[in-house]
Amino acid sequence: MQNILFIGLGNMGAPMAANLLKHGHQLTVSDLNPEAVAKLTGQGAQQAEDLKQAAAHADAVISMLPAGKHVKSIYMGEDGLFKHLKKETLVIDCSTIATAEALELATEAQKFGLRFLDAPVSGGISGAAAGTLSFIVGGSKQDFEAAKPLFELMGKNIFHAGENGAGQTAKICNNMLLAVLMTATSEAIALGVKNGLDPKILSDIMAASSGGNWVLDRYNPYPGVMENSPASNGYKNGFMSALMLKDLNIAESNAAAAGLATPMGAAATKLYRELAEKGKEDLDFSAVISLYDEKII
């Protein structure tokens, strides 16, 4: 049994933390939302009244935060947690941040004798709740193996992508592709509907044909086609469009630094930026279909 400090109890972090509790770990939790904290303490977790003190007693720290600035503030601020953790503590950041930020965090962690892994996830809220997430991990092989038992309590597919930063690079490649699939699938469905086709029948046809993809199989963007999809729930409780735009911007910056043109990724970025400008950034990323038919939302 390990004493784990879990920071960030949002849509993804809360169910991940709950799965650790179910498997008997001692869990101390921290979040700015008192309701999220209360829900986890109701399941047996302890609240981190003093984050620095909680860090000092932790065997491992897991963070799931919105952006790189939040991660760096927690760990590398003027009195950040890196200064309060025991040497050899395993620090696992599951946020999706820029590769350069992950490398900066890893370098700083090493100065304090800490073990750092960037471990962004894929699989959405349903995967977090079911414990079937994919973890895409960057860091040393030794640290990866040490953390793997924890990943296996929260996820199903555990990948060691390479050294520090590799997890974040692989994740933004995945999310850029996902955004392209979502925008292209939305475009195709919208075209069919405009021409009088039933969206479910069209989706079934494409899913069984050469246009089949993960969006059609698991995350249809058209309301009513899939009962449990965010599209059938007012585009709520999913992966926010604002976060997809953040990830696309990270991918765009990474591509620029690598000297690689990514025209499909750029097109998806433009669409999600337009969605944000329309005030829909808090809706699930499948809400991009509303750019083709505003009557949907």
Tell me the overall shape: globular
Main beta sheet: strand number and arrangement?
A: 6 strands, parallel
Span from first to last CA? 47 Å
Mean of all residue-level pLDDT scores:
96
**What is the count of helical runs?**
12
Count all strands and give the number: 9
- Order of strands, widest sheet: 3-2-1-4-5-6
Structural class: alpha/beta
- Structural Rg: 20 Å
Stretches with pLDDT under 50, minimum 5 residues: none
Residue share in helices?
40-55%
What can you see in these coordinates?
With 297 residues, the protein is of the alpha/beta class. It has helices at 13-22, 34-41, 51-56, 68-76, 99-111, 124-130, 141-154, 166-194, 199-207, 214-218, 241-258, 263-277, and strands spanning 3-7, 26-30, 46-47, 60-63, 90-93, 115-118, 121-122, 133-138, 155-162. The strands form two sheets. A six-stranded parallel sheet has the order 3-2-1-4-5-6, sandwiched between helices. The chain has a three-stranded mixed sheet with strand order 7-8-9. β1 (3-7), α1 and β2 (26-30) form a beta-alpha-beta unit. α1 packs parallel to α6. The longest helix is centred in the middle third of the chain and has 29 residues, at 166-194. The mean pLDDT is 96.
Key descriptive features of the protein:
single chain, about 300 residues, alpha/beta, six-stranded parallel beta sheet, 12 helices
Fold blueprint:
Layout: E1 3-7, H1 13-22, E2 26-30, H2 34-41, E3 46-47, H3 51-56, E4 60-63, H4 68-76, E5 90-93, H5 99-111, E6 115-118, E7 121-122, H6 124-130, E8 133-138, H7 141-154, E9 155-162, H8 166-194, H9 199-207, H10 214-218, H11 241-258, H12 263-277
Helix pairs in contact: 1-6, 4-5, 8-11, 8-12, 11-12
